[in-house]
Design a protein that fits this description.
A six-stranded antiparallel sheet has the order 1-2-3-4-6-5. It is built from 15 helices and 18 strands.
Length: about 525
């Protein structure tokens, strides 16, 4: 078996374990026609003890068989309590600190059946990458080491345990999260990946399954097992993959990943994956659905065919958002956003309704820009939200138009005259009703005119903190909102919170009757939450 065949077999083995398949033999046949690779993957699955489906592979019977040798063992000051998951690279346990029972971690242990040189280097790289990343949107790293299972040293590392977490797509679907909520989550995820990019780290396997949402709604990126570190000082993380080797999950892989040359894979590969995630969360489908085709056919489709305009699957999406997703999915990496941090900022601009973004043309299926003024406008300026049709994921609202007022009043007037003429309503009753209605409108108008509406801009370091004003959720920083000051208002309470950081509460005084002389702005620096020292 050649090195290329061995690497392909390893990748297919990991994918089979991760994704689950009802018929391993048939599934492998759809991925490669190389009989040698097929035989090797089947052998590895047999050694691993894989079951026909994902549900069966994590059954109690399988978990007990795989976990018996480590249950109750103490590694690095943590006692292993139970198995919580298995995958292509090994097993993940719930472990508890021997000095603080409330301190739980997820402990990842490399599987004995995958302790070859490639697997060991990837496992070590994942530990090194996670140790370098300190961001509330990335699962925290607590340490690692080796243990002897009687057949030699096996590596492990402990990371943040995200209790009651849900995968990104499931979270959005089960909670019926609207469009703005989904985009806010991807903006937070992009900020976390942008932090990795600034540290010289490329994830290379971004997908909803590798993004967990906590019970409080905060995203956590996990599984840096195939991440790549760039730069001369990246140590063990600089281990290079061989040319021709595919790493990642097919429907989220960029064209350059299919090419298999690691020298051409940079942070823009992650931007492409984030574009696929956006497409999936918004439309419920993939730009290129290559799950059931061979690797060769998947490579042809992704490398040679432009991603479709997402408005074909979600017609109510505005031009600006469609352009943002289209730019993420460009086949040429030079035409995408430079990194995930830029994508995060563009998404937040869209959420704020800002209109000063650089125009980004949308290409048709032949690669030519669509004409300006057509349905697929080439500008990223979001149309006025009141004029654009609501997306199916958002709550529907009635759009006002000056065209309905005159005909409606005319019909109402004719109806009233007819009711009076037929004796259904007496002129005296009509007059009393009109006086009551006029008095009520006057009261409402007086109250509204007495209020002062003041805009407020709130930012934080780091960005992505959730903001509430008097208990009303207004989004994540940087955010622009407003406060309606009534004559009796004394002040407003602003709360700013973010996972891994101390929450802050600020009270601002109500605007004076004449208004303020300068815009109301707030910028806060969030302090990291106190961490429990590792034993």
């Amino acid at each position: 078996m050649t090195p290329a065949q061995r690497d392909l077999a390893q990748r297919l083995f990991e994918e089979a374990i991760r994704e689950g398949t009802p018929d391993p033999s048939a599934w492998i046949a759809t991925k490669t026609l190389d009989s040698t690779v097929c035989a090797e993957v089947k052998r590895m699955l047999a050694v691993h003890g894989a079951r026909p489906t994902h549900a069966e592979s994590t059954s109690d019977r399988t978990a007990t068989r795989l976990a018996d040798s480590l249950l109750g063992c103490v590694l690095g000051g943590y006692r292993i309590d139970r198995l919580i998951g298995t995958g292509g690279m090994g097993r993940v346990y719930l472990a508890v600190s021997t000095t603080d029972p409330a301190n739980e971690v997820a402990m990842k242990v490399l599987g004995r059946s995958v302790t070859g040189a490639v697997a060991l280097s990837r496992f070590a790289r994942e530990a090194e990458v996670m140790a370098r990343l300190k961001h509330p949107g990335i699962a925290a790293f607590f340490g690692g080491g080796m243990y002897d299972d009687g057949q030699g040293a096996v590596p492990w590392f402990a990371m943040e345990h995200i209790a009651n977490a849900t995968e990104l797509a499931d979270w959005c679907d089960k909670r019926d999260v609207n469009l703005r909520g989904r985009l806010s989550l991807v903006a937070e995820i992009s900020d976390a990946i942008g932090h990795a990019h600034r540290a010289g780290i490329i994830h290379r396997d971004l997908k909803p399954a590798n993004i967990l949402i906590t019970s409080s709604g905060e995203p956590k990126v996990i599984d840096f097992g195939v991440a790549r570190c760039v730069g001369s000082d990246s140590g063990v993380g600089a281990v290079q993959t061989q040319t021709g080797q595919l790493l990642g999950t097919l429907q989220y892989m960029s064209p350059e990943q299919f090419a298999g040359d690691p020298r051409k894979i940079d942070q823009r590969a992650d931007v492409y994956a984030l574009g696929v995630i956006l497409f999936e969360l918004i439309t419920g489908s993939y730009p290129h659905d290559v799950r059931a085709v061979s690797v060769t056919e998947a490579a042809r489709i992704v490398c040679q065919e432009d991603a479709p305009d997402m408005r074909g699957a979600a017609a109510d999406i505005d031009d600006a958002l469609a352009a943002i997703v289209a730019k993420c999915l460009r086949r040429e990496r030079s035409e995408r956003f430079d990194d995930a941090r830029e994508l995060s900022q563009i998404l937040r601009n869209w959420l704020r309704g800002e209109t000063d973004a650089e125009p980004m043309p949308i290409l048709d299926t032949k690669g030519s820009p669509l004409a300006t003024g057509s349905k697929a406008s080439t500008t990223t300026k979001p149309p006025a939200r009141a004029k654009s049709a609501a997306h199916p994921l958002e709550s529907q609202s009635i759009q006002r138009s000056s065209g309905w007022l005159v005909p409606t009043l005319s019909v109402l007037l004719v109806a009233v005259v007819a009711l009076v003429a037929t004796g259904v309503i007496s002129p005296k009753s009509l007059a009393q009703w009109w006086r009551a209605l006029s008095s009520g409108v006057a009261d409402v108008t007086a109250r509204d005119s007495a209020a002062i509406v003041e805009a407020i801009s709130i930012d934080s370091d780091p960005v992505g903190a959730r903001v509430t004003i008097d208990g009303r959720d207004v989004g994540v920083t940087p955010v622009r909102s407003s406060i309606a000051w009534q004559p009796t208002s004394q002040g407003a309470t602003i709360s700013i919170s973010m996972g891994g950081y101390k929450s802050q509460t600020h009270v601002i005084s109500a605007a004076p009757r004449g208004g303020r002389t300068a815009p109301l702005q707030m910028r806060v620096r969030l302090d990291p939450a106190a961490e429990t020292p590792s034993p």
